[in-house]
Amino acid sequence: xxxxxxxxxxxxxxxxxxxxxxxWVCPVSVKGENHNIIxxxxxxxxxxxxxxxxxxxxxxxxEYWIHADGFQFLGSCAEPVKPxxxxxxxxxxxxxxxIFRYLMWCYxxxxxxxxxxxxxxxxxxxILLHTTLGYYYCGEQGFGEVENVGKQWMDxxxxxxxxxxxxxxKSEEERYVKARTAAKNMFDTYIAWGGETYQDIVWIQPxxxxxxxxxxxxxxxxxxxxxxxxxxxxxxxxxGTSYSKKISESLxxxxxxxxxxxxxxxxxxDGKFLVVESVAPxxxxxxxxxxxxxxxxxxxxxxxxxxxxxxSYMEWSCxxxxxxxxxxQPVQNGVLLPATGSxxxxxxxxxxxxxxxxxxxxxxxxxxxxxx
Length: 372
Prior knowledge:
Helix content: 25-40%
Largest sheet: 6 strands, antiparallel, barrel
Strand order of the largest sheet: 1-2-3-6-5-4
Mean pLDDT: 80
Radius of gyration: 31 Å
Oligomer: single chain
Structural class: alpha+beta
Order of helices and strands: HHEEEEHHHHHEEEEEEEEHEEEEEH
Number of domains: 2
Distance between the termini: 20 Å
C-alpha cells in the first residue's frame, strides 16, 4: 500500500493521459480522386437506332439513340435533307464546338429548354432543336426547298441560334455563367459521321466519374499505415427525401482502395450520395469510427456517410474530416475495442476520471490524518 501511495500521482497522470487519448483523435483526411470515364471515345464505333418520329409540314425527323457498351444517349440529326440511320454502325468523333453542346444541353435542361425553344410542346421543341442544328451545321442549303413550312422553321431556328450566341453563350449573368460551366464540365459533344448517304447525328454524353474511398485500421490514427481489404461498400442516391436508390457496389482493389465506377451528377437529386459499409474487413467491426457529431448523426439517420458531387466541376466533397477514409476498430481477443468518439469512449473516460478523482480523495484524506 505504501508503494502504491508513493506512486499515486504518477498513476493519476498516466490515467488522465490515457483517458484523453481515448476521447481525442488526430483528424486525418485523404482526398478522393476522380477519374473521368467516357463511355464513347473519339474514334469508337457506335450503333444508332431511330426513336420517336416527329412530322412538321412536309418534313419529318426522329429522335436518334446512340448505343455503345451498355450506354444509350439521345441524339438529333444535323442534316435535314438526308435520310437518317436505321441501326447502322458509325464512327464517333468528339466535337469541340460549344454551340452544339449548348443547343443539346439546353434541350435536355428543365431550366433552359423553354427559354431556348419556346413555351411549346416538347415535340415541337425537339423539332426546333433539329432545325436549329441543321441551320447551324449546313446553312440554308441544308433545308433544300425552304418555302412555306420549311422557311417558318428555318426562321425559328435562326431565332434560337441568335439567343444561344448572344445570351446563353455571352451573358455574364450568374445563372448563365453557372449553366455554361455545368454544360462544359458535365458533358462531351460527339458527332457520328453519316457520310454521303446518311445524316450526321449529334449528341452529348455525361462525363462519368469514379468515387474512390479508402479503408484503414483505426490504429493508424495513433500512427501507422494499415490499409484494409475485404470490406464491401454500397452507394445510394438521394431521391429528395431519402437514400432509397442503390447505384452500385464498390470494387475492392485489394490495397485498401475501393472504387465506385461510372457515377454522374444526374443519378441523384442535387448530386447527393450515401456510402454504406455493408461488410467490414475480417477482424474488424462496424460501425466505422466517427469524426464528429455530424458524421455520427448521418450514420444513425441514413446508415452511412454522405458525399456530394459538384454540378459544375464534377468533383466530390464530404463534410466529415475523415472524408474519403473509413477507419474501423480491430477486434482484440474477440472483444471489440470502443470506437473513437463512441459512447463507449465516454464511458471509459468517465470510469478513468472517476478512478483518478477517487484515488486523489483517498490520498488527500491520508495526508490530513498524518497531519493530525
